[in-house]
Amino acid sequence: MIRRATARAVRAAGPARPAGPLPPLRVRREPPTLEEAVFAAQGLTDAPDQQVEIAAGLMGVPPAEVLPVLAALRAAPPRPAAPAARPAPRVVVLKRRLR
C-alpha cells in the first residue's frame, strides 16, 4: 500500500533548508585500474595480443606493463558476465463478480 505524506508528517520531518546558494558539489574521481582495462579488453576480443594493445591504449602505459596483469587474470576464474536470470513472474488473474 502506498502512503501519501500528510501535512502533519511533512512538518514533523523537521525544518526546511533555508533558501540560498548550495555548496559546490564534490566529485570523487577514481581512475580505472589496469585490471579493469584488461577486463574490458577481454570483453572486446579473444586474442591475447590484441587485449594487451587495447588495455595499454586505454591506460596509456606500455604493453610490457599489461602482460603480467593479463597473465594473472587469465589464470584467475572468469567473472560472471551477467547476474543469474530471474524466473518468469507468476501470473495472477482476478475476476470481478457483478451483482
Descriptive overview:
The model has no long low-confidence stretch (mean pLDDT 81). Helix 2 (34-44) crosses helix 3 and helix 2 crosses helix 4 (63-75). The chain has a domain at 31-76. The chain has 99 residues and is mostly helical. The protein has helices spanning 7-12, 34-44, 48-59, 63-75.
- Report the sheet-strand fraction: under 5%
* Number of H/I helices: 4
What summary fits the major beta sheet? none
What's the total count of β strands? 0
Oligomer: single chain
Which descriptors apply to this entry?
4 helices; 99 residues; 42% helix
Secondary-structure blueprint:
Elements: H1 7-12, H2 34-44, H3 48-59, H4 63-75
Please give a quick description of this structure.
This protein has 99 residues and is mostly helical. Helices cover 42% and strands 0% of the residues. The longest helix is centred in the last third of the chain and has 13 residues, at 63-75.
